[in-house]
Amino acid sequence: MHYLLSRLLHQRQLNVSAQLFNVSHYDVITDMSNTFSSLKEIINAPSYPSNKVDQSVVEIVIARLTAAIRETGSIESYAAELVDVLDEVLRHPMTSLNEKSQDVDSPHCKIASDLLSSLFLHYSNKSVMTLTIPVALKCLNSENAELVKNTTSYISLAAIHNRKSLSSHALQIISNVVRGNYSLIQ
To answer: Could you tell me where this protein is found in the cell (predicted)?
Structure first.
């Protein structure tokens, strides 16, 4: 793991975040498995939903990792780990209450949205979608309407190139349509 990533993940030194974006993409992706393990550890901490520093660290690291993966064209190498983090994030609530007792996106929802966006950039890549679609379909059962709406759009887009992958999930998709998600019919 690059030393700047390590300082950000392990010591929560936010002041190194700007420098991290100047590091070579290849240097960033050198030890992704440890980086993803550290991210999951932070995300699963009971204090994460209320810890703004940890939330910033996770957002910065995910932004940097996904940029490095995109720029190096290495999505096929890291899709499984990105999907694993997405699956981990989806185990947490996707909404939380703000000071006015209104439902807002939870910190976990923000990560899920970023990961979905990064993964579905590759909607025409069958190997990436084969890994992504089953986990993304879990988002359709979320209490977060915006996440459901965005995921529905992503799945509709992915259906263009991945009919066979989606066909194995037909019952799950149909049950979501029956529950009122008519956008999936597109």
So the answer is: Cell membrane; Endomembrane system
Residues 134, 61, single domain; the answer is: no
Task: Note the pLDDT of residue 170.
Answer: 66
* The model's pTM: 0.89
Q: Which residues is 103 bridged to in the sheet? A: 97
- Point out the domain boundary residue: 73, 90, 105: 73
Number of compact structural domains in the chain: 2
Q: What is the DSSP string of 62-92?
A: HHHHHHHHHHHT-HHHHHHHHHHHHHHHTTS
Structure tokens at 58: 């996770």
SS3 call for 92: coil
Would you tell me how many other CB atoms lie within 10 Å of the CB of residue 71? Answer: 13
Q: In the structure encoding, which two tokens stand for residue 153, read together?
A: 């759009």
10 and 59, same domain (yes or no): yes
The conformation of residue 16, written as its DSSP 8-state character, comes to G
Question: For residue 155, what are the domain limits?
Answer: 80-186
Read off φ and ψ for residue 71, nearest 5 degrees: -70, -25
DSSP 8-state class, residue 48: G
Residue 110 pLDDT class (50, 70, 90 cuts): very high
Euclidean distance between the first and final Cα of the chain, in Å? Answer: 43
